[in-house]
Amino acid sequence: MIHFIGAGPGDPELLTIKGKKLIDQADVIVYAGSLVNPEVLADAKKGAEIHNSAHMNLDEVIDVMSKAHKAGKKVVRVHTGDPAIYGAHREQMDRLDELGIGYEVVPGVSSFLAVAAVLKKEYTLPDVSQTVILTRMEGRTPMPADEKLADLAKHRASLVIFLSVGMMDELASTLIPHYGEDAPVAVVYKATWEDQKIVTGTLKDIAGKVESAGIDRTALTVVGGFLGDEYSLSKLYDKHFTHGFRKGIE
Ligand code: SAH
Fold first, then answer.
1. 159 and 203 Cβ atoms separated by less than 8 Å
2. Does the C-beta of 35 come closer than 6 Å to ligand 1?
């Protein structure tokens, strides 16, 4: 059994207990070296074989994992955040299916959740937005025709943009017609790492601020009214509102 593990956003204590146990027992570790904090591997077994997938293509990753697996070794494949978000682990799982090798996925704390935590914000404020859109700008991976940022922006949902901090000007100008130039924006570089940086602003000024801060990678951009201070109180904790677990006061 090969284990895909979400390593979390950076802080090694944000790894799940299950993920940590599997990493610490592994004989062979293949990790996404460009983004996974190496400290996540700090308690790996002495003599564990560690491969950085940043230098490997899909064939090489599968080759290393399948050979080790066939030799009876414990193999873990460590992805940043949660593998289900821009992790490219589906293609690896499909190859393992073809090879008849079993696997399991251990989820992790995605960076978009770590970003909300460090900003101390909630994406789903009543009367502001009850929807979170996770997306990216078009890069080498094309965007499907129906998912252009300008179309997604029409919903004015809480917006989380991965992988695109190098395209801030274009991002802001695409969003301004929908969110308004004064809409709040936060850019978080390496959330939960020791060198984390947070830049806040509006769609009008964020590109300049991000450039001055020297941020050009490993950052998430979040946009929307959830960054502001106007919202309605939740029904969940409303004393006049009852639900299955709590009787109302009235
Ligand atoms: N699977 C990962 C995302 C991989 S795509 C997850 O669940 O978070 C890589 C992109 O994720 C980066 O370009 C950046 O946009 C974002 N990212 C990953 N870790 C981050 C962190 N600690 N802080 C801010 N953004 C991060």
1. no
2. yes
